[in-house]
Amino acid sequence: MEHALTLHGVTKRFGSFTAVSDLTLEVPKGCIYGFLGQNGAGKTTTIRMVMSIFRPDAGTISVLGQPDAAAIKDRLGYLPEEKGLYKKMKTAEIVAYFGKLKGMDRSTANQRARELLTRYGLGEWLDKRCEAMSKGMGQKVQVLGTIIHEPDLVILDEPFSGLDPVNRDVMRDLILDMKRQGRTVIFSTHGMEHAEQLCDYVMMIHKSRLQFAGTLAEVKRGRDRGIQLDYDGDGAALQQLPGLARLNDHGKSAEIYLAPGRDPQQALRWLLDHVTVRRFDYREASLHEIFVRTVDDANRKLAAAGKEG
Questions:
Q1: Of 27, 94, 43, nearest to 206 (Cα)?
Q2: 193, 194, 196: which is closest to 172 by C-alpha?
Q3: Cβ distance 234 to 305 under 8 Å?
Q4: 3-class DSSP state of 228
Q5: Mapping DSSP to helix (H, G, I), strand (E, B) and coil, where does residue 280 land?
Q6: Can you point out the beta strands (E) in the chain?
Q7: Residue 199 in 3-state DSSP?
Q8: Would the pTM count as exceeding 0.85?
Q9: Across-strand partners of 7?
């Protein structure tokens, strides 16, 4: 299997603080890969090392077969976490400008910018200034600027942050379009629903250390199965469910995990008497559940190691 990105034993420190510790990872070509983790876990530092903004203190990185991303910058597209536009520039001008920075000639960049903006619903904004756009529209423009030169590898740092539902769907469609075109897409997120919907592979980093990596099926294999419940009524009743081990109640929907040996059919009969059940599935754990349990387990291990030390 060919890989768009490989990291081996990568470590990055800032003084006495270790941001990324001994990270080894492979990203296959042509996939959508999710970097998961809480704020401050090490996702952005990892991405900045991949982009040669930071240099690792230990380990090696290969990006599209090269040790230095700067040497192949025209094959990469990167949307940083700190996003911004030149507000006085017109929309088509700024997308074309990003293309010229990546080596496109003026005529091709101008034509491609107008084509992309029109295709993704911004045709009416071609000659309007960016300062008049909403945050979601501005973020869409930045993504189009990131991909105008048709990069082989696209890296998006928290691309869904702050978007409304309509623009989240637009961002999702952009990412899927890139995969259909044969590109490799890496995006970081702490929103598990985006990763579960889009990603072929995911990894999770917590407090600088890799916790898991693989396909969604591999990550979920061997985990507890649970009840996925949509309901109306008083969610407080769910706490009284006989045999309840864990509950993730989102209000009108919930994940319920039973103690070993408890029958989900008996749980369903009990739930029907206490809430209005709109959907009941007994299935593999969600990525949200896996994320939360992984954080809890990692924190317990860190606390135990601290006491032993």
A1: 43
A2: 194
A3: no
A4: strand
A5: strand
A6: 3-14, 17-28, 32-36, 58-63, 76-79, 153-157, 184-189, 201-206, 209-215, 225-232, 244-249, 253-258, 276-284
A7: coil
A8: yes
A9: 25, 61
Q: Which amino acid is at 19?
A: A
Tell me, what DSSP letter sits at residue 259?
Answer: P
Which residues have a Cβ under 8 Å from the Cβ of 274 and sit 6 or more positions away?
A: 233, 237, 238, 240
| Predicted confidence (pLDDT) per residue in 60-88, tens digit | 999 999 999 989 999 999 998 776 777 88
User: Cα(65)–Cα(279) distance, rounded to whole angstroms?
Assistant: 47
**Per-residue b or e along 21-53, where b marks 16 or more CB atoms closer than 10 Å to that residue's CB:** bebebbbeeebbbbbbbeeebbbbbbbbbbbbe
Helix then strand then coil, in percent of the chain rounded to 5, is 40, 30, 30
Minimum mean pLDDT among 33-37, 93-97, 133-137, 177-181: which range? 133-137
- Structure confidence at residue 308 (pLDDT): 63
pLDDT digits 0-9 by tens, 278-307 = 999 999 988 988 999 899 888 988 887 776
Selection from 65, 74, 14, 16 nearest residue 44 by Cα:
14
Give the three-state DSSP class for 149.
coil
Angle at 51 between CA 49 and CA 55, to 5 degrees: 35
Nearest one of 218, 146, 160 to 189, comparing CA atoms: 160
Place of tokens 């510790």: 21
